[in-house]
């Protein structure tokens, strides 16, 4: 295909699924350049549907990896993260995934390693009797910037509950942490589902009508978005798909239960919400197949299409085409730590110019007690 013009090559490559595209970027330097060109990146399938998941047992590594076809293989992705310094960091916790980067927390085994992980301010993992830093998230958008941010949400205990008191944000551009007092309403409790979109971290909350809290990478803009529907007593998950902020919730009614998907405007001057899809649980799984506690097992939304992913009490990881009302069982996964708020992390390989080569030779970066790898 060397004689074909670039426009035609781009047209052909744009029709490939993400897994094939990942293989074909190794065909030639010219193809790789076309795939990483900002003028063409938006046309390619950047979203291989695959997951890292937390394991319940004490096995090493503490995570597993699975793709949408269940084989657990994605070209050029070292899912075992074998490049990590296992000898100096025997305990590694998976915290988040964002556009090809993984956020990890490492517990160093030696005093020398601990010295390298000295915190700025109080840093990730800070924990004392009245304060904890339980939630951490990653912000990275290679189409906007080669730099990433790490968000650490600090909570204070009051009457046996934890409320957000401050947010610490790390910038890879400055190499420093900043600590800002929470700009959200007092008494905000976190539910733990998070997503990063257009420079803002969005987090689901408890109470407050199941609201979504948002903060930007500078901790200058703070916002609380009311839940699209207050009829559900179950907490939804926040994600993004096709460039829009998405909120997924299960409504339990007298006669049935419905899976409801809303598109929210991430314009921070707008409260617009659009009902995107609504489907009954019976229509998806049948009356005898209702997964117990489904509202807690909607694990992800596909970034490029109207598809949700579930994990049920039968240990099945499933994909659901909401528009077509079809459910596909991907595989059965044993040992998933479904007691975790976020047992699954959707992994999306990045094809941007700044990260393409780094995916071919994975590396890790240590930042003040939290390991980041891509």
Automatic annotation (TrEMBL):
Origin: domain of life: Eukaryota
F-box domain residues: 1-47
Pfam families hit by this protein: b-prop_At3g26010-like, F-box
CDD domains according to UniProt: F-box_AtFBW1-like
InterPro entries, per the entry: At3g26010-like, Beta-prop_At3g26010-like, F-box-like_dom_sf, F-box_dom, Gal_Oxase/kelch_b-propeller
Name this polypeptide is given: F-box domain-containing protein
Protein source organism: Panicum virgatum
